[in-house]
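It would be a great kindness if you could assist me with a short task in structural biology. The matter concerns a single protein, recorded as an amino acid sequence and a row of backbone structure tokens. The record follows directly beneath this note:
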Amino acid sequence: MEAREGRPMCTLRVSDACRDGLSTARPSIASQAGRSPRGTLTYAEGDYVWTPSASHGFRRSTIVSVQSDTLICETRDEDDPAGSGQFQVKRDEVRPFFDYGPDKTWSDNTSMVHLDDANILENLRRRYYQDDIYTYTANVLLAVNPYKMIPGLYSPETVAEYRGKPLGKLPPHPFAIADAAYRQLIRQKQNQALVISGESGAGKTETAKMTMHYITQASRTGAEAGGKIQEKIINSNPILESFGNASTVRNQNSSRFGKYNEMFFDPVGRLMYAGIRTYLLESSRVVGQQSGERNFHVFYEMLAGLDEDYLEETLQLDASGSYRLLHAGGAPSLVPGTHQALEEASKFKQLETAMSSFASPEECKEFWELLAALVHLGEVQFVDVAGSTTGDTTPVSRARQSGSADGSPSSQATADLGADIAKVQVHPESADALAQAAFLLGIQQVGQLEQALIFKEMNVRGSVIYCPRTLSQAIQTQQSIIKILYNRLFDKMVERINVTSSGKSTASPSDSPRREHHSIGTLDIYGFERLRTNSFEQLCINLANERLQQFFIEEVLEAEQRLYEEEGLRIQRFPLPDNKPVVAAIEATMAILDEHSLRSSKNLVREGGEADTEFCGHVHRNLVQGKRDSPIMALRMNSKAAREGTAMKATDGFQIRHYAGPVTYATRGWIDKNNDALVPEVESLLDDAKRELTRSMADRNRLHASSTRDSVSHKYLGNLSSLLQTLKKCSVHYIRCFNPNDKREAGVFLKNKVHDQVVQCGTVELVKIMHHGFPNRVLLSELRERFQNLLPSDFQRYKDAEFVEALMMAFELEPGEWTLGTKRLFLKAGQLLVLENLRDVGSTASQDLLKRLRLHFAKKKVWSIVAKAKVLRNWLRSNRRNRLRRIATAVSKAAFIFVRVMRWWNRTRTRLYPPQPEVLPEEQDVLVPSAAALPTVTEPPLPVRFLKPQVLLSYHATNRQIFVACNPYEQPKYTNLVASQMDMSKPIGETTLKMWQRDTTENILYHNRKEIFSARLDPKGFIVSSLVEAQNRKTGLDDIRVVDPHESGKAFPIRSIPRQHKPAIVCMCQSHSRREFATCDEDHKVTHWRWRGTDSMAPEKDSVKLLGGTPSLQVDEVLHMCFLSPDVLPDRVKANHGVTLVILFTRNGYLSLMLLSVYQGSHKVEDLRRVDLSDAVSDSEGLRSYDMSGNIQKVEINFMTTTHSEKLVVLGGGIVGGRAVLRLFAVRTSAAGKLSLEPVEDASTHDAPIEPYLPDEGVSITALFCGPPPVRCGNYDWLAFGDNRGTLYGFKLDHLANGSFQVDEGSSGRFRESLHTKGVAIRQIIGCFGTHADTHHREVQRAGIPYGSYLDMVPMRKDTFYSLGADGVLLTWNMTKPGWRHSWTCHFDAGDVVSAQCSRLVPNIMVRFEEGAFFKCFDTAQGRQARTGRTSSASAGGA
């Protein structure tokens, strides 16, 4: 048999018999020993096989050489070239490979040719990527978490489709398992159980909810009664998830308790009531969490969802506050208005709605108050009392007053217990928290609660002895109160759910279901856990998984082999894993723990010893030392950690060999965690509380120290044994859930991770048994009743076994595919479906007739299908050839017409628009009011020469800027057609977008404080689709012109500049609309204009459209200008089509700001404000400062711009009085529509909020970048600064609700990586619009707008920017989870680059201006790939 790739697969010797028309023959399976069940496998050179791989589980390899016990194989891995090559592998480690085709999968693993872990893993992987996440292995359902919603998978139509269908009739689904359990409940009158297992994050909880939902829908319950019960079952889920689930490092909604949901049905299948049993709530999570984890969901939902007044006034909690119980694991505080806060609030609303079915509003408030009390109690801290010694344990005896009402010491006695005998006391700053906790708990006197925390009460012969607690004992008592109260609150909530769901007024543990009622239980229990630090909770969780694994082995795998023996089948018996030694060792460990817990409660720990250390030593002596085969092992010491002093000691824990792998446990704190009781004095306080809920939390059986105590481990072992006894009485159905990856990402299937889970859950053992056995079995009597019409009536006199044997032989089923037992027929996978098909067609003929008819019609049907397939194939081929021929003809005609038309068009345009003369016609009037005639020129035009890849301009200047604007003149002519015929429901084709981008050009505007130059950026030089284009592509930058925005509105080629004087343009800025600009000349006239582009074929066209302007402003010098966003402008400005500029200028030696609104033909000064530098120099000095020699130096203002939110104006730069100038102004709009600027500064220092975080003496700010917020987590601005010493700073400036601004200290400050040259200034920080040429294509497709329109509105990337040093070093910065990180560096010529800007049309191209008037282009994408900063002609496009 040849594989699809042209290579032979492993040879499979099978019988030649086949089932014509019904199924393909499988290899004959022999029952006698010594013969392979699926045929004899032989390997030859060139065969494909599966070989083990540490990173992939198994991978396909080719046999190179065959030896006696080993094979030489070769693997080619394109993703991991280092893992490719030849290697030697043992023959028994190799798995056979069978080519089913690239897309073929099996809904039941037992239907495959080869049943082993490698082929099952490959089948699961293929089905996962086809969104078939469910697969059968016999009657066990395997489920792989997709981490996404699959449309229609759980719809009401799907529920109806699976109702009443036998298992295997429809594709694998949890609904099929649930339906089979329900039908068995009705038919067999036996309790059913669904055991859903898997590791954390595998989807157990969601699967359990789906199965319960299906059963409630499928039950024969009346609409009204069923609706109420279903509502209670559904409402219990949000409550249990909020109180019992938490976010861990592996699962955001991890169940931290086990639960067994039972639904009880009457004999006809009507749902009567439901109940829940819970196991081992991880109560230690309430007082501490590991790094990256959170407390239980209910705490955060309560803070986000409760009414603000009630939360702050009654509960004394702050929704955005940080609390020790809730944020010990590093969980961030809630920020109002963020997505997280809104989501938590939404879940709290769902929780309130669900709790309304089980508790009144007043009872719900008591729940919230108790939770708030725990939060406040967690804030209490203790300090050692001065003068006390740790070893001082002298008890203080106080006789009880017979007249005391509550038996507690009198106030005088309590006062006598002063600081002179106490070892610890409550920290003064925690007193309010303790008082608030006592108030919310309803405890009358806070002193009684404080006394219980710092003293231990003991009764000795009628006297009360108070032993002072040490600091660690006080903390343990505090944490014990919090944990046990939360545990009891959770149990009370479960009890309330059970009482309400059962319809009873009270509930007790002895309550049992009525005899005629049967149940379907769903077990959703925590999966196996192996964390960085494993404690007592992980031991209990893993014990439950060990017991369930043992139950699966005993009740499924061993039961399967016992059934074969009882039926007299000669099936090879396989050794199964034995979990009993591990279970016995863990139970022995818990017995030792109970012993030490009892001794600790009675103060029998020897002096100077630690209870946890003594317990661990006891485990080592009894279960580790001298026992080589013990499942419990000593810790393995890490030499490096031991040298550093961070390694665990031998007495700090131990290691256990679990079925899923070894786990290391740290025993610190186990004695306290095993304690399930509060001290009697605390129980008494709870019993005397004035709040009903708090009183109900008290255990009245433990009010006295002499009462017996039940440990957590003892109770847990009892609950676990009870659960297993319940399961043994049920017919159990299994659903195994697998987690495909640890990152919770959809579409990621890690084969090695899934393979480990497949091995751990016993699927391999099940597969081995099914591989050599018979997964399908039917009672002989039932089979005869279903198929008796398939044989003539004379066969009815036979016994059941004879009739079934005759039936198998009559239809020629392969003897190895079935066998008879004493009571059952056993079939290989797929053979039962053959019999079902025969019954469906109604065959009744004799054996010979059945054979002839089946063969005849099967062949006829095959011939018909083959003939039709041939006709269809020929028709498709002919139709395809004709279609391709028509397309080729049409394309050829279109190309011919296009070439002829373009030639005619070029000749016509040349005749109509001849080359432009050297001197332009008379000047045009402009719309600026009071515009005067300008004097003539005094300088000759600049000489120009063109170089490749450089363009030379003829002079040198400073303070230069580069702007980028789309060129409307040279947008593709077919854009109007595409825009007019655009269908928003269909995306624009990728090919159209590429053509669109290649045929569009962009203008680069360069301002040097005197003139404005424009260059044309042609993307064809950078977008290359073939080698021919790469060799023949044109220059990227060309058509250099001088722009005259104030008079003619034209862009003149440099050789034809009018020889007349024009005022120098000293300032320029670009609007948010991308193609609108404002300029100011040396006469202080401001002009607002729109860029219309340049036409390389028609130079005489206008390039500038004047929109408005002003006469000469009464200022000395204009330094900077910037536009205000239309979003912050009042309606009166926008209604008159005006814009507002922020102008920084000097007058009379002072630095001032002006808000200037410019309209068509008019203007208005909105606000004037002096920039106060009084903290550095006196008012009389203005912009002047003094150096060390007393000479006056002018201060440089390096930048002024608005932030991304447009709410702030930032200016600064040089040094005044030894410190850098930095001022922030808030843009305000009054109710009357008046615009103004208000300084943002500290009231005491008059500094900007950012200024205290910048360097001190002698450091100036040389660059500023106001980019979009890199992380969307609130309302804030993000600013990046660079100084003259090569340091970068980033600041997060939060916008507060009162309109002020505040620096987020945790997210602000100096960049960790300082990669610029020390002492060299950072010249510019440059924003980025993308990293590849086709970055914008997806957004254009989604928006459905022309490419040019999108370029006018494209935003900067929030996760990337560049920083350019004065020495030519260009760094790229990317946002990662830890923060901003440098990714690559390039080096330009030192000191050459003075300004740079990124293209919008080709986002990966950066245009820079160098000394000597050079334009150059740099391809950042190729720079990143090559890890070099060199600009080649290929990357620069010849510019």
In short: The chain has a mean pLDDT of 78. The two ends are 60 Å apart (CA to CA). Residues 847-912 form the longest helix (66 residues).
